[in-house]
Structure formats: structure tokens, C-alpha cells
DNA sequence: AAGATGGGGCAGCCATATTGACGTATCTAA
DNA sequence: TTAGATACGTCAATATGGCTGCCCCATCTT
């Protein structure tokens, strides 16, 4: 039990630290990366969808998106079906930058996967899925529709 | 790949949120919990050992420990082999409080473990171990000597 | 006796989150 | 067509948890 808690702590913190330098070069923080990441994952995401994913307040997200827009990494378009919505997308530069950050994560994770073996990876996923509260599960599964 | 990153994100954030309410009741935050947790895990831990585990600065930890001492959850004793060291320990109340918080974590993790099965749990551990940088591994293994 | 180490502390800064309230544009349904 | 709900933006104020740089003391080691 305790082992799971602390491995999760170390694994998560050490993985996220892997990209801090890349972010700092652009004057950005982890909050920006999380937004970038999920916008990359689901282009044309709306603000409210992103809010649900990140589970932070509108104000907190607002600043992050303002920063990203100012640095021309993210752009918004008015929703087509609902003109109140804003659809979020990465710019070409945003795509490039996110890919660069993701690459650092991918490298770390790939070596952990390789060391553990495919069977372990499946187990890793299963346990983590079980940690997601029922009310968030639909959202996470929706993300994975186009892996 | 992306699946691993986001499951880790959701799993970690949702698990940690499970104890926010319990902490808030005592006017504490997650930083306090991390310190409490590792002191519970290894009584008579020194400050410098805890710093290595948490990978934060002395000042950041200092504030956290001051808060915990003021609330009489943690106490320190002078080191026996080296009188410069301070050995950290939970008070009786600290033990009680940490156990209560841990219980919330345990409940979440136990249900994820049960849903995933023992084999998956082993895989979960293996992958997470692989995410820990080599220079931190010895420290993490040391924690587990007395599971 | 000199230097290294463990720990404490000050001042100031930054990033990221919070709440609550209010405003505007747009959609939906009576 | 109008009333209410929704999507988004934004204000101000506040809290938390990090950081750096610098200096201090006590204690251990050589």
C-alpha cells in the first residue's frame, strides 16, 4: 500500500521535472504545459472541456491561456455549432513546442516501459484507471478515442 | 505513450485530492502531508534526508516543519550519533492524524488494486520504479526496507 | 585550529491556485 | 419574443508552496 503511494509520488514528480527546463526556456510553467498537452491531444477543445480535465478554476486557466496566446502557441476560433464556445488549437509553433516537450516525457516513459515489459505496462494502466473517480472516467476515456 | 502520461496525471492528481479536505480541516496543505507521510514512514529521519526525498529547498521545508511543530504533530530530538542532526518524529497526535489521512489514500488505492488484480499491481510498481532516476533510486529503495 | 557539514533564518520574489462577484454574447425553451 | 441558462471573460483580493542569495551557529572531522 505505502509502496504504491510513494512510487506514484516519485514517479509523477520525477517525470514532470523532466520538462521543467524546456518550459523555463520559454518562461512557462507546468500549468502551461498541462494546457498545451491537452489542447494538443484534442484540437478544437472548448474552454469548459479543458476546465473539466484540469479541474482548476476559470481564472487560473484564463491566465495560462492568455500567456499561451501571447506567445503564439495557442489560438482560438469561435465555435461553429455554438458561437459562445471558443475552440482551442495549437499554432504551428505550439505544435512544435509541445512535441519537443512530449519527447522528453516519451523518452523517460519509454525507458521505464522497456525496463518493465509490456505486461507490466498493461498493469500500470489498469491500476491508474482504477484511481480515477467514476465521475471523471467518461472524460478520460473520451480522450483516448483517438490514440 | 500519451495514455501513460495522462493516466499518471489523472491518477496522481485525483489520488492527492482525496485528502485535501482532511488537511484543510487542520489548516494544512499537501506540502505538510508529504512531510508527515515520510516522517511517519521513517521515524527519526533527519532534515537532510527528508530534503533529499522531497527534493525541495531547506527554506520551503522549514516553513512546513514549523507549521507541523506548532500544531504539535511533529517533534524533533537531537541526533545521538551526530548532535548537529535533528531527528524527526510524529507525536501521538501526528501518528493519529497521518493514519487518518493515509486511510483515505489506502481506500482509493485498495479499490484500484482490487479492480486491477495483483498481477497488474506488480506491473504498476515496475513501471513506476523505472521512472525514478538512477540517482534517486537508492533513496527510494531505502524507504522500502521496512515495509 | 581550520574547514566541512547539519541545521536555522532573513528578505524578497514568483507561479499557481483559490473565491466571489459581475458583464457580455449567445443559445434554448416557454 | 422574451426569460433564463450557458460559455466565456475579468475584476480584486488572498493563500500556498515553491525559489534564490546570503548569513548565522553548533558540531564534527582532520
Structural commentary:
- The structure is a homodimer of 147-residue chains.
- The first copy, chain A, is globular, with a radius of gyration of 16 Å.
- In chain A, β2 (74-78) and β3 form a beta hairpin.
- Chain A is 71% helix and 8% strand.
- The first copy, chain A, has 147 residues and is mainly alpha-helical.
- The first copy, chain A, starts with a helix and ends with a helix.
- Chain A contains 8 helices and 3 strands.
- The structure holds a DNA duplex (30 and 30 nucleotides).
Number of domains of chain A: 1
Low-confidence stretches of chain A: none
Number of helices of chain A: 8
CATH topology descriptor of chain A: Arc Repressor Mutant, subunit A
For the biggest β-sheet of chain A, the strand order reads 1-3-2
Record field, number of beta strands of chain A: 3
Q: Could you tell me which chain pair has the largest interface and how many residues each side has? A: A-B, 54 and 54 residues
Radius of gyration of chain A: 16 Å
Mind telling me the CATH class of chain A?
Mainly Alpha
Sheet-strand content of chain A, in percent, reads 5-15%
Oligomer: homodimer
Helix proportion of residues of chain A, in percent?
Answer: over 70%
So, CATH architecture of chain A? Orthogonal Bundle
Give the N-terminus to C-terminus distance of chain A in angstroms. 31 Å
String of helices and strands of chain A: HHHEHHEEHHH
Note the main sheet of chain A.
3 strands, antiparallel
CATH superfamily label of chain A: Winged helix-like DNA-binding domain superfamily/Winged helix DNA-binding domain
Amino acid at each position: 500500500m505505502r509502496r504504491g503511494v510513494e512510487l506514484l509520488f516519485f514517479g509523477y514528480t520525477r517525470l514532470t521535472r523532466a520538462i521543467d527546463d524546456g518550459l523555463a526556456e520559454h518562461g512557462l510553467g507546468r500549468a502551461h504545459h498541462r494546457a498545451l498537452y491537452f489542447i494538443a491531444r484534442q484540437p478544437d477543445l472548448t474552454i469548459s472541456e479543458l476546465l473539466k480535465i484540469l479541474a482548476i478554476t476559470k481564472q487560473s486557466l484564463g491566465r495560462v491561456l492568455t500567456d499561451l496566446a501571447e506567445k503564439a502557441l495557442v489560438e482560438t476560433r469561435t465555435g461553429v455549432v455554438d458561437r459562445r464556445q471558443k475552440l482551442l488549437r495549437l499554432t504551428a509553433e505550439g505544435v512544435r513546442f509541445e512535441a519537443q516537450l512530449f519527447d522528453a516525457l516519451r523518452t523517460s516513459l519509454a525507458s521505464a516501459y522497456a525496463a518493465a515489459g509490456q505486461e507490466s505496462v498493461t498493469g500500470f494502466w489498469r491500476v491508474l484507471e482504477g484511481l480515477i473517480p467514476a465521475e471523471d472516467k467518461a472524460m478520460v476515456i473520451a480522450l483516448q478515442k483517438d490514440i
